[in-house]
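User: Reviewer 2 asked us to show a designed sequence for the structure in our supplementary figure. I'm pasting the C-alpha cells here. Could you produce the per-position amino acids so we can include them in the response letter?
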C-alpha cells in the first residue's frame, strides 16, 4: 500500500508516459491495481488492437468486444442481413470504441469475416453480404464513438461501401480533425475527401499516397486537390509517393517547398520522372534543406542534371536508399556523398544479383568518393561489394556497425575478415552470388563468425 500511495503522487502525465513505454505483458499485470490504472492502461491497449493481433482467436475476441457495444437498432439491422447475436456476447465495462486512434477499415472488414467464421478468400455472395453488413456497423460505431482518430489507412479500391457507412450526423471533417498520419491508396474519385482534408487538417506529420499501375490518374483537378491538402500541413515530416502518374508527381513536387522547413523524409516508389522539367525538381526539392532521409525505389526517367543540382542542397542528409540502383545516375549519389559529408551515415544501393558485375565498377568509383568525403558511416549496403572492397570500407569508416558483403566463397570471406573488423561492427549481411550452397559450410561459417567476431549474420540461404 505504501508503494501504491507513493506512485499516486507522480503527476498524471509522467505516470502515463511510464505506461506508454511498458510492454503489453506488463500492462496486463497492472490492469487490476486500481480503477485509475485500469482506465489508463485500457486506453493504451485499445488504440489499435487489430493492428497488433497474431491469431484469428485474438481477432475474434476483439470483434466480440466491439459488437457487445452495438445498440438494439444495430442488431435489428444485422438480423435483417442474416447476422444473429450470439448468446455469449455481453456488454463490456468500457466503451472500447471510444479509445480507437488508429483506423484501418480494411482490417475491420477482415475481422468481420473472421468473427463470422468465414473463409478469408473467395467468400460466397451470401457470406460477403453478411461480412459487409457487420463491417458497416463497425464503421458506424467508430464514426460515432471514437474521440480522436490519429492515423487513417485506407484503400479506396478495396471497399467501395466504406464512405456510405458514415452516419449523416457524423461529419467527415469532424472525424479527421486530429489526424497525424494518413495512408491512402486508390483515390480517383475522392476529391471531396482531400478537399475536407485541406480545410480541417493542418498538423498531419506523415502522408503516403499510392495508386495502382492500372489506375494512374491524369485528372488535373484531382492532382491539384491532393497538392492543396499537402500544402495545408504545417508539421509534415515524411512523405511517400507511390505509383503516381506524371501529372500527380509534377504537381506534388512543385509544392514541396511549402513543407520544406519540417520535412525530414521523402520516399519515391515506382515513379517515372520523365515528364518533370529540371526546374520543377530543383524548385520543389532545393528548399528541403532539413531532409534527413531520401529513398528511391524502382524509379525511372531520372534526369541527371536536375538531381545532381538538387543533391547540392542536401547538406543534412543522413540516409540515402536506392533500390534498383542502376536506374539512378551515379554522379547524383557521388554528389550526395560530397554535399552531406560527415552527416551521411546510412548508404544503401541495392539491385538484383544479375546487376552485380555492373555494380563492381560503380563501387570502385564510389569507394574513391567515400574515402575523400565521409568516414562516419554506420551502415552500408552496396550490391556487388566484394570482400576486398569491404575491408577497405571498414578501414575508412571506424564507426561502421553494419555491412553487406557479396561473395561466392564463404571460407575465403571468413579468412579475409578475421582480424580486420573494427570493434564497432556488430552485424554483417552475407549474400551468396553462387547458386551452389554447402549447408554444413554455411552452418560452420555462422558458428566461426559468431565465436571469433561476436557478429550477427544475415542474408545467407536458410539451412536445411
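Assistant: Here is a per-position design you can include in the supplement:
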Amino acid at each position: 500500500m505504501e508503494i501504491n500511495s507513493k506512485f499516486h503522487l507522480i503527476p498524471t502525465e509522467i505516470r502515463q508516459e511510464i505506461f506508454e513505454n511498458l510492454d503489453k505483458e506488463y500492462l496486463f499485470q497492472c490492469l487490476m491495481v486500481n480503477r485509475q490504472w485500469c482506465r489508463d492502461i485500457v486506453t493504451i491497449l485499445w488504440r489499435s488492437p487489430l493492428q497488433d493481433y497474431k491469431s484469428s482467436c485474438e481477432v475474434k475476441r476483439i470483434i466480440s468486444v466491439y459488437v457487445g457495444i452495438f445498440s438494439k437498432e444495430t442488431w435489428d439491422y444485422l438480423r435483417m442481413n442474416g447476422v444473429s447475436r450470439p448468446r455469449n456476447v455481453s456488454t463490456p465495462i468500457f466503451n472500447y470504441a471510444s479509445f480507437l486512434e488508429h483506423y484501418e477499415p480494411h482490417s475491420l472488414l477482415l475481422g468481420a469475416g473472421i468473427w463470422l467464421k468465414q473463409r478469408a478468400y473467395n467468400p460466397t455472395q451470401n457470406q460477403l453480404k453478411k461480412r459487409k453488413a457487420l463491417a458497416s456497423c463497425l464503421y458506424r460505431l467508430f464514426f460515432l464513438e471514437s474521440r480522436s482518430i490519429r492515423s487513417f489507412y485506407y484503400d479506396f479500391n478495396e471497399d467501395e461501401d466504406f464512405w456510405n457507412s458514415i452516419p449523416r450526423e457524423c461529419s467527415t471533417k469532424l472525424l479527421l480533425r486530429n489526424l497525424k498520419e494518413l495512408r491512402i491508396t486508390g483515390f480517383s474519385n475522392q476529391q471531396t475527401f482531400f478537399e475536407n482534408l485541406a480545410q480541417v487538417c493542418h498538423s498531419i506529420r506523415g502522408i503516403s499516397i499510392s495508386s495502382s499501375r492500372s489506375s494512374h490518374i491524369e485528372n488535373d483537378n484531382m492532382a491539384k486537390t491532393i497538392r492543396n491538402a499537402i500544402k495545408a500541413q504545417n508539421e509534415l515530416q515524411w512523405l511517400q509517393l507511390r505509383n503516381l502518374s506524371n501529372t500527380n508527381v509534377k504537381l506534388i513536387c512543385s509544392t514541396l517547398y511549402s513543407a520544406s522547413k519540417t520535412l525530414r523524409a521523402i520516399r519515391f516508389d515506382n515513379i517515372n520522372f520523365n515528364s518533370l522539367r529540371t526546374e520543377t525538381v530543383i524548385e520543389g526539392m532545393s528548399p528541403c534543406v532539413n531532409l534527413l532521409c531520401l529513398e528511391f525505389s524502382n524509379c525511372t526517367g531520372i534526369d541527371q542534371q536536375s538531381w545532381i543540382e538538387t543533391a547540392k542542397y542536401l547538406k543534412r542528409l543522413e540516409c540515402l536508399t536506392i533500390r534498383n540502383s542502376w536506374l539512378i545516375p551515379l554522379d547524383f549519389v557521388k554528389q550526395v556523398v560530397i554535399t552531406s559529408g560527415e552527416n551521411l551515415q546510412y548508404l544503401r544501393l541495392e539491385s538484383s544479383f544479375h546487376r552485380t558485375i555492373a555494380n563492381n565498377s560503380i563501387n570502385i568509383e564510389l569507394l574513391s568518393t567515400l574515402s575523400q568525403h565521409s568516414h562516419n558511416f554506420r551502415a552500408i549496403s552496396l550490391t556487388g561489394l566484394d570482400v576486398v572492397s569491404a575491408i577497405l570500407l571498414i578501414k575508412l569508416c571506424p564507426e561502421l556497425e553494419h555491412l553487406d558483403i557479396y561473395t561466392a566463397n564463404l571460407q575465403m570471406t571468413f579468412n579475409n575478415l578475421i582480424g580486420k573488423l573494427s570493434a564497432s561492427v556488430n552485424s554483417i549481411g552475407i549474400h551468396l552470388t553462387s547458386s551452389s550452397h554447402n549447408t554444413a559450410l554455411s552452418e560452420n561459417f555462422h558458428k566461426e563468425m559468431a565465436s571469433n567476431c561476436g557478429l550477427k549474420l544475415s542474408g545467407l540461404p536458410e539451412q536445411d
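For the response letter, you might also mention the following. The first strand starts at residue 102 and ends at 103. Residues 304 and 329 are 6 Å apart (CA to CA).
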